[in-house]
Amino acid sequence: QEKSSRLSAALFGEDCEISHDQVYELLKYAALGKRHNATQPSWCHIYHQSHLAGVVVIVLHEMSQLHFYKFYLQFKHLRKVFQHRFTLPPSSANFLANLYGEEANLNPQNTARGSTSTSSQCIPNSSDLQWDPIIQKYGGEKRGLTSYTLTLEELKKNDYPMKGSPGCEDYMYTECDQQRTDSSPLFGLDCEMCLTAKGNEVTHVSLVDAQGRCLLNELVKPESRIVNYRTRFSGITRKILLPVKTKLADIQTRLKKMLPHDAVLVGHSLNADLQALQMIHPSVIDTSLLFARNEGRRFKLKFLAKAVLGKEIQCEQKLGHDPAEDARASLELAQFFIEQGPAKVAELNLEMLLTTERLTEVSQNKSALQLQQNTIQRQLNEPPHLSKPRFLDSLQMTGQKPLLLGRQELDSSGLCQSNLSTSNKQILQRALRDVPLSTFSIIQFSLDPEYVAPHLLAGICEKVRIKLTDMLTIYAGPFDESFCLKSVKKEFGRCGPIRSLTVVTETYQPYVCIQYEVLEAAQLAVESLNGAEVAGVCVKVQRPVTGTMLDCDLLIKELELDIENEGVIYVAGLKKSLTETDLQEEFSQLKDLEALFLPRDLQSGKHRSCCFLKFQKSESAVDALEVINGWARKGSRLRSRKALAPGHLWRWIWQMDHSSGKQRGDILCEEKEQPSDSEQELRKKLKRLDQHIRKLYRSLQNNTLCIVLFPGVN
């Protein structure tokens, strides 16, 4: 019988925080096993790694733990299926670059001559140049432009619209069928797009001739309703498009008339522009493919313009990209390549320049600066092709082809070309098709920029804080005018650690407002003390009645069913003098006890009057509840119930509470705002994302390690 792979992670409670290096450690061993010096992770154990069918990493770009718990009920699949959940600390470096193992590029094993420094360029020797991907693709001799136009096979492979291709039936053909020669005219083309109800539609088109003169620079009114202007990239706003009458058909007709019959179009990832224009042109030079890199990676246009032409384009100070500027840059890059030849381009050592540029970007403090200097000094004698293989390089060396699917540009890795036109649905469809063919896949889903805007996130953060505060709070009463506050605090303190207790005097008879430190304590108080006699009177115990609390019972129920809480119970009423060893001894008679977590105050370090017990089987946890509550009926101080908050959530609640400058009473008195349209729309989008993950998860083979990452924005 074939063995099953499985992951065992013994972290519990406050230990549920892991580093980016530990994630990388897990992925490397899962994908490579004992090959390439990969070792078992230090913090968990993978059993029967050789039987793993594959590794799938799903990255929810710019989403964080805040999104998960604000929209907890929407993430129905995630919280019910994934067996382990961990918190990652903020990272100063690019998270995805760490994940890809980009830092491995900075630790070469072998030495040879060549390379560049930040202040000067050194030409690699001829023996090094032979390994350059540009030389390997084109050779070292100069050639005419026809040698660099894409072949039919390359057009098809790179998703260019072609005659007879599915979905291209209604596309306009430029009818530029005349045979190309090395003196055929070059034209630079670039488009900017907005997202409409129909998909990706052109809103700005530019065409430049071989001398860089702008022949066409037109705004275009899309046929469908715009749902996202993507102003950051397109430079388009509602106000700009309002007076525009030009339609896509007008642009198609003008382009067709302007282009000579032997025209060669030049652009950077020109397939996306032609797809958006719904036009077919048989002869193109794609600068993202012309300046070849290893493993199908591509240089960004912005980097090539600076490194090859010495020009700054797509500056952050400008509103969006200028298509005329981008078209001109692509054209000049192609002209440089043709005029100088592959050997001269290879001598620029673009890979090294890119590495240097990245090092400069991350040098934000003295230690980072020292790292940059040391690395560059080492690399002065080491060509990029002889450096220590990155994690993904190692995969390819073992015959595994990693799959990278995403919508956002993966800036620091250089592994994926930006394709903002791709929707999450399209990414899912490709993933369902391609993931089964790959042993290591990274699938990145994204939200549109307006849904990760700082002001929206700040509002969501405050609402989460308010809701958690309300869930940690209970009201009890009514009490007699002369009731004993000390006895009330003692009775309610048996449910768990109290943060604050105040007397409410606005009512006819006094009530008390108690704010606990853990969700289980508040819930235990509602369940065990509502209708009980406290301080000589029968009291009613309830949570605040606010708009945010209308779904509290449902949320409590779902938290209990959370797979993270399976087999975990909460125990309150402990003496603060007891140590972990004392508790292990006290609970030793409980069957299948696996671990004990004794929460501490994260400021003082002191133990709380409660703990969490984790059992190997959920049935054993149910039995333990009966035993402990049986002790309570016989006079024990201990009280117990099912756990609601995993260790990482408990820690996060504490951090959120202490990061606010407001008093908890102030928060309770704030008027609760109604959800904004953006927040309501975000709720729907995250529910849809959860469904995407569910579909992808269900399509995976048995014995697949699947990890979902909420990397956040900082």
TrEMBL record:
Q: Which GO terms describe its molecular function?
A: exonuclease activity; RNA binding
Cellular component, GO, one term: nucleus
Classification via CDD domains: REX1_like, RRM1_NEFsp
Alphabetically ordered keywords of this record:
Exonuclease, Hydrolase, Nuclease, RNA-binding
Q: Does the keyword Hydrolase apply?
A: yes
Which Pfam family name is an example for this entry? RNase_T
| Protein name per its UniProtKB record | REXO5 exonuclease
